[in-house]
Fold this protein.
Amino acid sequence: MKLESMTLTNFRNYHQLSLSFSSSVNVFLGENAQGKTNLLEAIYVLAMAKSHRTVHDKELIKWDSDYGKIEGRLIKRNRSIPLELIISKKGKKAKLNHLEQSKLSHYVGMCNVVIFAPEDLNLVKGSPGLRRRFIDMEIGQIKPIYIHELSQYQKILQQRNALLKDLSTKRSSMTAMLDILTEQLIELAAQITIRRFQFIESLRGWAKKIHASISRGMEDLDMAYISSTPNVLENMELSKLKEEFVKGFQTVREREIQRGMTLIGPHRDDLQFEINHRDVQTYGSQGQQRTTALSLKLAEIELINQEIGEYPLLLLDDVLSELDDYRQTHLLETFKQKVQTFVTTTNVDGLDADVINRATSFIVRDGE
Ligand code: ATP
Ligand code: MG
Protein backbone atom coordinates (compact mmCIF):
# COMPACT_ATOMS: atom_id res chain seq x y z
CA MET A 1 0.00 0.00 0.00
CA LYS A 2 1.10 3.56 -0.63
CA LEU A 3 0.10 6.90 0.81
CA GLU A 4 -0.30 9.16 -2.20
CA SER A 5 -0.94 12.43 -0.40
CA MET A 6 -1.70 13.95 2.97
CA THR A 7 -3.28 17.22 4.12
CA LEU A 8 -2.93 18.56 7.65
CA THR A 9 -5.07 21.19 9.33
CA ASN A 10 -4.08 22.41 12.79
CA PHE A 11 -2.04 19.31 13.51
CA ARG A 12 0.84 19.94 15.98
CA ASN A 13 2.85 22.88 14.57
CA TYR A 14 1.18 22.70 11.12
CA HIS A 15 -1.58 25.16 10.39
CA GLN A 16 -2.27 23.97 6.86
CA LEU A 17 -0.13 21.69 4.71
CA SER A 18 -0.64 19.47 1.67
CA LEU A 19 2.00 17.00 0.51
CA SER A 20 2.24 14.50 -2.37
CA PHE A 21 4.52 11.57 -1.70
CA SER A 22 6.85 9.37 -3.68
CA SER A 23 5.89 5.71 -3.64
CA SER A 24 9.44 4.72 -2.67
CA VAL A 25 11.52 6.84 -0.28
CA ASN A 26 10.51 10.21 1.21
CA VAL A 27 12.98 12.19 3.29
CA PHE A 28 11.93 14.91 5.75
CA LEU A 29 15.00 17.04 6.25
CA GLY A 30 15.33 19.86 8.74
CA GLU A 31 16.87 21.21 11.90
CA ASN A 32 15.67 20.26 15.36
CA ALA A 33 12.16 21.23 16.48
CA GLN A 34 10.91 22.14 12.99
CA GLY A 35 8.20 19.49 12.62
CA LYS A 36 9.82 16.38 11.08
CA THR A 37 8.60 13.92 13.69
CA ASN A 38 5.23 15.67 13.66
CA LEU A 39 4.87 14.62 10.00
CA LEU A 40 5.66 10.98 10.74
CA GLU A 41 3.31 11.16 13.70
CA ALA A 42 0.57 12.52 11.42
CA ILE A 43 0.97 9.53 9.10
CA TYR A 44 0.94 7.20 12.09
CA VAL A 45 -2.17 8.82 13.56
CA LEU A 46 -3.92 8.74 10.18
CA ALA A 47 -3.33 4.99 10.10
CA MET A 48 -3.79 4.02 13.75
CA ALA A 49 -6.16 6.72 15.04
CA LYS A 50 -3.72 7.26 17.91
CA SER A 51 -0.26 8.62 18.38
CA HIS A 52 2.86 6.55 18.92
CA ARG A 53 4.21 9.11 21.39
CA THR A 54 1.31 10.34 23.46
CA VAL A 55 -1.93 9.00 24.86
CA HIS A 56 -3.34 12.52 25.15
CA ASP A 57 -4.99 13.27 21.82
CA LYS A 58 -5.43 16.93 22.60
CA GLU A 59 -1.66 17.43 22.38
CA LEU A 60 -2.01 16.71 18.66
CA ILE A 61 -4.20 19.75 18.08
CA LYS A 62 -2.34 22.92 17.22
CA TRP A 63 -2.12 25.22 20.21
CA ASP A 64 -5.03 27.67 20.33
CA SER A 65 -7.11 25.61 17.87
CA ASP A 66 -10.31 23.73 18.63
CA TYR A 67 -9.69 20.77 16.39
CA GLY A 68 -7.07 19.17 14.19
CA LYS A 69 -7.54 17.20 11.00
CA ILE A 70 -5.50 14.75 8.95
CA GLU A 71 -6.63 13.68 5.49
CA GLY A 72 -4.90 11.18 3.28
CA ARG A 73 -5.33 9.25 0.10
CA LEU A 74 -4.26 5.63 0.29
CA ILE A 75 -3.63 3.38 -2.69
CA LYS A 76 -4.35 -0.22 -1.77
CA ARG A 77 -5.05 -3.12 -4.13
CA ASN A 78 -5.22 -0.60 -6.99
CA ARG A 79 -8.01 1.28 -5.25
CA SER A 80 -7.78 4.83 -4.04
CA ILE A 81 -9.16 5.18 -0.51
CA PRO A 82 -9.71 8.57 1.17
CA LEU A 83 -8.97 8.54 4.90
CA GLU A 84 -9.86 11.29 7.31
CA LEU A 85 -9.35 11.74 11.02
CA ILE A 86 -10.67 14.68 13.00
CA ILE A 87 -9.47 15.25 16.54
CA SER A 88 -11.37 17.65 18.75
CA LYS A 89 -11.47 18.23 22.47
CA LYS A 90 -14.60 16.05 22.54
CA GLY A 91 -12.97 13.07 20.84
CA LYS A 92 -12.06 11.57 17.48
CA LYS A 93 -14.02 11.02 14.31
CA ALA A 94 -12.74 8.75 11.57
CA LYS A 95 -13.96 8.61 7.98
CA LEU A 96 -13.28 5.97 5.35
CA ASN A 97 -14.36 6.79 1.81
CA HIS A 98 -15.95 9.93 3.32
CA LEU A 99 -18.20 7.81 5.55
CA GLU A 100 -17.94 8.28 9.29
CA GLN A 101 -17.15 5.01 11.08
CA SER A 102 -19.18 4.27 14.20
CA LYS A 103 -16.21 2.49 15.77
CA LEU A 104 -12.52 3.31 15.46
CA SER A 105 -11.85 -0.42 15.20
CA HIS A 106 -13.65 -0.33 11.83
CA TYR A 107 -11.22 2.32 10.67
CA VAL A 108 -7.89 1.09 12.04
CA GLY A 109 -6.30 -1.59 9.89
CA MET A 110 -7.11 -0.04 6.52
CA CYS A 111 -3.71 1.63 6.44
CA ASN A 112 -0.83 -0.29 8.00
CA VAL A 113 2.33 1.30 9.32
CA VAL A 114 5.50 0.18 10.99
CA ILE A 115 7.37 2.86 12.87
CA PHE A 116 10.94 2.73 14.07
CA ALA A 117 11.66 5.64 16.39
CA PRO A 118 14.50 6.36 18.83
CA GLU A 119 12.40 5.07 21.74
CA ASP A 120 12.13 1.69 19.98
CA LEU A 121 15.81 1.21 20.60
CA ASN A 122 14.70 0.72 24.23
CA LEU A 123 12.26 -1.98 23.32
CA VAL A 124 14.55 -4.73 24.57
CA LYS A 125 16.07 -3.08 27.63
CA GLY A 126 13.18 -0.82 28.66
CA SER A 127 10.19 -1.59 30.87
CA PRO A 128 7.80 -4.50 30.14
CA GLY A 129 5.09 -1.90 29.45
CA LEU A 130 6.95 -0.86 26.27
CA ARG A 131 7.02 -4.43 25.03
CA ARG A 132 3.33 -4.97 25.78
CA ARG A 133 2.49 -1.75 23.96
CA PHE A 134 4.51 -2.95 20.98
CA ILE A 135 2.63 -6.27 20.91
CA ASP A 136 -0.75 -4.57 21.31
CA MET A 137 -0.21 -2.00 18.58
CA GLU A 138 0.90 -4.66 16.12
CA ILE A 139 -1.82 -7.21 16.77
CA GLY A 140 -4.37 -4.40 16.63
CA GLN A 141 -3.32 -3.59 13.09
CA ILE A 142 -3.62 -7.14 11.89
CA LYS A 143 -6.73 -8.05 13.93
CA PRO A 144 -8.76 -4.92 14.69
CA ILE A 145 -11.12 -6.86 16.99
CA TYR A 146 -8.16 -7.18 19.37
CA ILE A 147 -8.33 -3.44 20.07
CA HIS A 148 -11.89 -3.91 21.28
CA GLU A 149 -11.00 -6.93 23.43
CA LEU A 150 -8.11 -5.05 24.95
CA SER A 151 -10.16 -1.99 25.85
CA GLN A 152 -12.82 -4.24 27.44
CA TYR A 153 -10.05 -5.91 29.41
CA GLN A 154 -8.70 -2.55 30.61
CA LYS A 155 -12.16 -1.45 31.66
CA ILE A 156 -12.82 -4.56 33.75
CA LEU A 157 -9.29 -4.48 35.12
CA GLN A 158 -9.87 -0.94 36.39
CA GLN A 159 -13.16 -1.90 38.04
CA ARG A 160 -11.55 -4.94 39.57
CA ASN A 161 -8.59 -2.95 40.87
CA ALA A 162 -10.94 -0.35 42.38
CA LEU A 163 -12.90 -3.09 44.13
CA LEU A 164 -9.73 -4.80 45.38
CA LYS A 165 -8.59 -1.51 46.80
CA ASP A 166 -11.88 -1.08 48.64
CA LEU A 167 -11.67 -4.65 49.91
CA SER A 168 -8.11 -4.09 51.09
CA THR A 169 -9.12 -1.02 53.10
CA LYS A 170 -12.33 -2.73 54.28
CA ARG A 171 -14.45 -0.06 52.61
CA SER A 172 -16.24 -2.89 50.86
CA SER A 173 -17.06 -6.51 51.57
CA MET A 174 -18.49 -7.36 48.16
CA THR A 175 -16.52 -10.53 47.48
CA ALA A 176 -19.35 -11.84 45.28
CA MET A 177 -18.74 -8.88 43.00
CA LEU A 178 -15.07 -9.81 42.89
CA ASP A 179 -16.02 -13.27 41.60
CA ILE A 180 -18.10 -11.78 38.81
CA LEU A 181 -15.37 -9.39 37.72
CA THR A 182 -12.76 -12.16 37.89
CA GLU A 183 -14.87 -14.34 35.64
CA GLN A 184 -15.29 -11.53 33.12
CA LEU A 185 -11.61 -10.71 33.25
CA ILE A 186 -10.63 -14.34 32.63
CA GLU A 187 -12.76 -14.55 29.46
CA LEU A 188 -10.85 -11.61 27.96
CA ALA A 189 -7.48 -12.51 29.44
CA ALA A 190 -7.57 -15.94 27.81
CA GLN A 191 -8.53 -14.54 24.42
CA ILE A 192 -5.86 -11.82 24.56
CA THR A 193 -3.21 -14.31 25.70
CA ILE A 194 -3.96 -16.70 22.84
CA ARG A 195 -3.70 -13.91 20.29
CA ARG A 196 -0.42 -12.70 21.78
CA PHE A 197 1.09 -16.21 21.80
CA GLN A 198 0.11 -16.67 18.14
CA PHE A 199 1.46 -13.27 17.14
CA ILE A 200 4.82 -13.83 18.83
CA GLU A 201 5.11 -17.27 17.29
CA SER A 202 4.64 -15.84 13.77
CA LEU A 203 6.91 -12.87 14.44
CA ARG A 204 9.58 -15.12 15.91
CA GLY A 205 10.26 -16.95 12.64
CA TRP A 206 10.71 -13.75 10.66
CA ALA A 207 12.79 -12.04 13.35
CA LYS A 208 15.13 -15.03 13.57
CA LYS A 209 15.73 -15.03 9.83
CA ILE A 210 16.23 -11.28 9.59
CA HIS A 211 18.47 -11.09 12.64
CA ALA A 212 20.69 -13.86 11.26
CA SER A 213 21.06 -11.91 8.06
CA ILE A 214 21.79 -8.55 9.76
CA SER A 215 24.39 -10.19 12.00
CA ARG A 216 25.89 -12.05 9.04
CA GLY A 217 24.94 -15.38 10.47
CA MET A 218 26.72 -14.81 13.79
CA GLU A 219 23.65 -14.44 15.97
CA ASP A 220 20.67 -16.67 16.54
CA LEU A 221 17.77 -14.61 17.90
CA ASP A 222 14.97 -16.25 19.80
CA MET A 223 12.02 -14.76 21.60
CA ALA A 224 9.22 -15.93 23.86
CA TYR A 225 6.04 -14.59 25.37
CA ILE A 226 6.17 -14.92 29.13
CA SER A 227 2.83 -15.11 30.92
CA SER A 228 2.54 -13.76 34.46
CA THR A 229 0.01 -16.51 35.20
CA PRO A 230 1.54 -19.82 36.33
CA ASN A 231 1.18 -22.71 33.86
CA VAL A 232 -0.23 -20.55 31.07
CA LEU A 233 1.73 -21.84 28.12
CA GLU A 234 1.98 -21.62 24.35
CA ASN A 235 -0.25 -23.87 22.21
CA MET A 236 -2.86 -24.31 24.95
CA GLU A 237 -6.46 -24.38 23.85
CA LEU A 238 -8.78 -21.61 25.01
CA SER A 239 -10.66 -23.83 27.48
CA LYS A 240 -7.40 -25.06 29.03
CA LEU A 241 -6.08 -21.51 29.27
CA LYS A 242 -9.22 -20.42 31.10
CA GLU A 243 -8.81 -23.26 33.57
CA GLU A 244 -5.27 -22.13 34.32
CA PHE A 245 -6.43 -18.55 34.80
CA VAL A 246 -9.16 -19.73 37.20
CA LYS A 247 -6.55 -21.64 39.23
CA GLY A 248 -4.14 -18.72 39.07
CA PHE A 249 -6.69 -16.24 40.39
CA GLN A 250 -7.69 -18.61 43.18
CA THR A 251 -4.05 -18.86 44.25
CA VAL A 252 -3.44 -15.09 44.37
CA ARG A 253 -6.86 -14.11 45.73
CA GLU A 254 -5.80 -13.38 49.31
CA ARG A 255 -2.69 -11.54 48.18
CA GLU A 256 -4.71 -9.45 45.72
CA ILE A 257 -7.11 -8.40 48.48
CA GLN A 258 -4.17 -7.51 50.74
CA ARG A 259 -2.37 -5.54 48.06
CA GLY A 260 -5.51 -4.03 46.52
CA MET A 261 -4.61 -4.82 42.92
CA THR A 262 -4.80 -7.44 40.17
CA LEU A 263 -1.55 -9.38 40.25
CA ILE A 264 -1.75 -11.66 37.21
CA GLY A 265 -3.01 -11.30 33.64
CA PRO A 266 -1.94 -9.92 30.25
CA HIS A 267 -1.25 -6.49 31.81
CA ARG A 268 1.68 -8.11 33.65
CA ASP A 269 3.11 -10.30 30.89
CA ASP A 270 6.38 -9.76 29.08
CA LEU A 271 8.58 -10.72 26.16
CA GLN A 272 11.96 -12.30 26.48
CA PHE A 273 14.77 -12.30 23.93
CA GLU A 274 17.79 -14.53 23.61
CA ILE A 275 20.80 -14.31 21.35
CA ASN A 276 22.75 -17.54 21.03
CA HIS A 277 20.77 -18.83 24.03
CA ARG A 278 21.73 -15.93 26.30
CA ASP A 279 19.22 -13.42 27.63
CA VAL A 280 19.60 -10.17 25.67
CA GLN A 281 18.14 -7.97 28.44
CA THR A 282 20.86 -9.18 30.80
CA TYR A 283 23.83 -9.94 28.58
CA GLY A 284 23.23 -8.19 25.25
CA SER A 285 25.50 -5.34 24.18
CA GLN A 286 23.89 -2.06 23.25
CA GLY A 287 24.38 -2.87 19.56
CA GLN A 288 22.79 -6.30 19.99
CA GLN A 289 19.83 -4.75 21.74
CA ARG A 290 19.40 -2.28 18.89
CA THR A 291 19.74 -4.96 16.26
CA THR A 292 17.14 -7.03 18.08
CA ALA A 293 14.75 -4.08 18.03
CA LEU A 294 15.50 -3.56 14.34
CA SER A 295 14.94 -7.23 13.54
CA LEU A 296 11.57 -7.05 15.30
CA LYS A 297 10.49 -4.06 13.24
CA LEU A 298 11.60 -5.63 9.97
CA ALA A 299 9.87 -8.85 10.98
CA GLU A 300 6.70 -6.87 11.51
CA ILE A 301 6.87 -5.58 7.94
CA GLU A 302 7.03 -9.12 6.62
CA LEU A 303 4.31 -10.33 8.97
CA ILE A 304 1.91 -7.61 7.89
CA ASN A 305 2.56 -8.51 4.26
CA GLN A 306 1.93 -12.15 5.08
CA GLU A 307 -1.36 -11.43 6.88
CA ILE A 308 -2.73 -8.51 4.86
CA GLY A 309 -1.22 -9.26 1.46
CA GLU A 310 0.40 -5.82 1.16
CA TYR A 311 3.45 -4.19 2.62
CA PRO A 312 2.82 -1.49 5.26
CA LEU A 313 4.26 2.03 5.18
CA LEU A 314 7.57 2.31 7.00
CA LEU A 315 8.30 5.35 9.19
CA LEU A 316 11.88 5.85 10.32
CA ASP A 317 12.39 8.64 12.82
CA ASP A 318 16.03 9.64 13.20
CA VAL A 319 17.17 6.07 13.61
CA LEU A 320 19.39 5.53 10.61
CA SER A 321 22.22 7.50 12.13
CA GLU A 322 22.00 5.25 15.21
CA LEU A 323 22.92 2.18 13.18
CA ASP A 324 26.30 1.23 11.74
CA ASP A 325 26.76 1.30 7.95
CA TYR A 326 26.18 -2.37 7.41
CA ARG A 327 22.93 -2.34 9.39
CA GLN A 328 21.80 0.87 7.72
CA THR A 329 22.41 -0.53 4.25
CA HIS A 330 20.61 -3.72 5.21
CA LEU A 331 17.61 -1.74 6.37
CA LEU A 332 17.54 0.38 3.23
CA GLU A 333 18.04 -2.62 0.93
CA THR A 334 15.16 -4.45 2.52
CA PHE A 335 12.61 -1.78 1.79
CA LYS A 336 14.03 -0.26 -1.38
CA GLN A 337 11.62 -1.72 -3.93
CA LYS A 338 8.52 -2.75 -2.10
CA VAL A 339 7.92 -0.58 0.94
CA GLN A 340 7.01 3.10 0.83
CA THR A 341 9.29 4.73 3.36
CA PHE A 342 9.33 8.03 5.24
CA VAL A 343 12.61 9.02 6.86
CA THR A 344 13.39 12.02 9.06
CA THR A 345 16.90 13.34 9.42
CA THR A 346 18.71 16.51 10.39
CA ASN A 347 21.56 15.68 8.03
CA VAL A 348 21.70 13.75 4.76
CA ASP A 349 25.39 13.01 5.15
CA GLY A 350 24.63 9.98 7.27
CA LEU A 351 22.38 8.44 4.63
CA ASP A 352 23.10 6.07 1.77
CA ALA A 353 23.84 8.28 -1.32
CA ASP A 354 22.01 5.94 -3.67
CA VAL A 355 18.84 6.20 -1.61
CA ILE A 356 19.08 9.97 -1.34
CA ASN A 357 19.43 10.29 -5.10
CA ARG A 358 16.23 8.43 -5.73
CA ALA A 359 14.30 9.86 -2.79
CA THR A 360 11.83 12.72 -2.73
CA SER A 361 13.03 15.23 -0.17
CA PHE A 362 11.02 17.75 1.81
CA ILE A 363 12.70 20.59 3.65
CA VAL A 364 10.91 21.13 6.95
CA ARG A 365 11.10 24.56 8.54
CA ASP A 366 8.92 25.83 11.37
CA GLY A 367 5.74 23.97 10.48
CA GLU A 368 6.03 24.51 6.73
P1 ATP B 1 14.04 16.93 16.23
O1 ATP B 1 15.03 16.94 15.12
O2 ATP B 1 14.55 17.64 17.43
O3 ATP B 1 13.48 15.60 16.53
P2 ATP B 1 11.55 17.62 14.86
O4 ATP B 1 11.67 18.39 13.61
O5 ATP B 1 11.28 16.18 14.75
O6 ATP B 1 12.83 17.89 15.75
P3 ATP B 1 8.96 17.83 16.11
O7 ATP B 1 8.96 16.83 17.19
O8 ATP B 1 8.26 17.45 14.87
O9 ATP B 1 10.43 18.33 15.75
O10 ATP B 1 8.31 19.14 16.78
C1 ATP B 1 8.41 20.40 16.25
C2 ATP B 1 7.76 21.46 17.10
O11 ATP B 1 6.37 21.23 17.25
C3 ATP B 1 8.28 21.67 18.51
O12 ATP B 1 8.94 22.89 18.58
C4 ATP B 1 7.04 21.71 19.40
O13 ATP B 1 7.08 22.76 20.32
C5 ATP B 1 5.95 21.94 18.39
N1 ATP B 1 4.64 21.42 18.83
C6 ATP B 1 4.39 20.24 19.43
N2 ATP B 1 3.07 20.09 19.67
C7 ATP B 1 2.48 21.21 19.22
C8 ATP B 1 1.13 21.67 19.20
N3 ATP B 1 0.13 20.94 19.68
N4 ATP B 1 0.89 22.90 18.65
C9 ATP B 1 1.88 23.65 18.15
N5 ATP B 1 3.18 23.27 18.15
C10 ATP B 1 3.48 22.08 18.69
MG1 MG C 1 12.07 14.53 15.74
User: Anything to note?
Assistant: The radius of gyration is 22 Å.
